[in-house]
Amino acid sequence: MSTESMPGSGSGSGSAEAEAATAWGLSELAGGVEAGEVPYDRLVAGGRRRLRRRRLLTAGMAAALVVGVAGGTAVLGERGRDAVSTVVAASASAPGVTAPASPATPDTPSGPAAPAPPGPPATPRAPGARDPFHPVRVKVAEGTASGHTWQAWAALWPAAPTKEDFATQLQLIRAERYAANPDVKPVTQESIDINWSPRIDRVNYYYLVDGERQKDDALPAVSGAGQSPSAVGAASLGLQYPSDVPPVVIGGVQPEVTKVVVAWKTGGATEAATVAVGDSPFRFFGLGAKPGSDAAKVTYYAADGSEVRTADDWLRTS
Q1: pTM of the prediction?
Q2: pLDDT of the residue at 228
Q3: Phi, psi of 170 (to 5 degrees)
Q4: Taking a C-beta distance cutoff of 8 angstroms, is the pair 282, 232 a contact?
Q5: 130: closest CA among 30, 224, 27, 26?
Q6: More confident call, 97 vs 23
Q7: DSSP state string for 197-231
Q8: How far is CA 309 from the centre of its chain?
Q9: SS3 breakdown of the chain: % helix, strand, coil, rounded to 5?
Q10: Can you state the angle between helices 163-180 and 40-68, rounded to 10 degrees?
Q11: What's the average model confidence in pLDDT over 134-156?
Q12: How many CB atoms lie under 10 A from the CB of residue 183?
C-alpha cells in the first residue's frame, strides 16, 4: 500500500498547517494498530453506556440552567484500472456491515447489493448522530479488470469524544482490518495516548475483489465534521499486498472537487466522480490503475467544469 498526500489539500493558515501535520502524524501511527479477538458486544455496549451517561449529564445541566434563569429560554443542540475498467461512483451508503450470522444494520440506507467485510454487530442510532463505534460506509467506485470485479470503499469513523471511546474505536477498527490481514499490529496504550483528538476522524480505505476484502488498506486521520478540511490523503492499494487486479486508488479531495481525471504515462486516461461520505468535510473517489503505469498528470475539476488544480508528482501505482 502506498499512501500519498494530496497536493493542494493543506493550504491555509498556520493553524490549518499544524492540523494537517498533526493529522498526518496521527495517520502514520494509527495505520499500525492491532490486537487479538475483539469482544464486539462488550466493547460497543461499554462505549454506549459512557455516551449515554455523558448525554444524560448534559441534559441535566441544561435543565438546571433553564430553571435557574427566570424568564429565560435555553436551547441546546448537538451535531454531531486496468485502463479499460468501468469506474462507477456510488453515492449511496453500503448495506449494514455485520459480524457473521448477524442481522444487517437496520438504520443504514441500502446501497448497491454488494458484500462488505465482516464488522461489529449493528446498533440503531439517532438520525444524524455521529457514532464513533459505527462507521459510515460508502462504495466510492467499482469496475472490472483481468476478468475480476473490484469495489472501492471508504468507511468514515467519526471522532471519538473521549480517549476511552477512542480506545474502543481503535479495537473495532483493528478487528475489521485484522480479519482481512493478520499482519495488522495490535492497539497499544501509546498509540491511544498520542493519536486521540476529538476533532479528528479516521477513514478506512479498502477494496474488494470478487466480493472479498483484500489485505491492503489505509487508515488516514482526517479533519472531522465542522473542521477546516485541511488534512486528507489517498492510497494506492494492492502494491504492498498484490491482488488479482491492478492497484486500486482511493482518496479524498477538497469539497469543491467533483471529478478527478488521471492521465497515464503509457497513454489513456481514467475518470472518477467524487462522492460524499457521511458528514466529512471532504469528498472521496476511487479508480482502478492502468496496469504497469503511473500517472502522468492528475486533474481535479469543479462542478461547473472548471479546473481546480493539477498535479504530476504524487500518484504511484506500479
Answers
A1: 0.65
A2: 81
A3: -60, -35
A4: yes
A5: 224
A6: 23
A7: -TTEEEEEEEEEETTEEEEEEE--EEE-TTS----
A8: 23
A9: 20, 25, 50
A10: 150
A11: 97
A12: 12
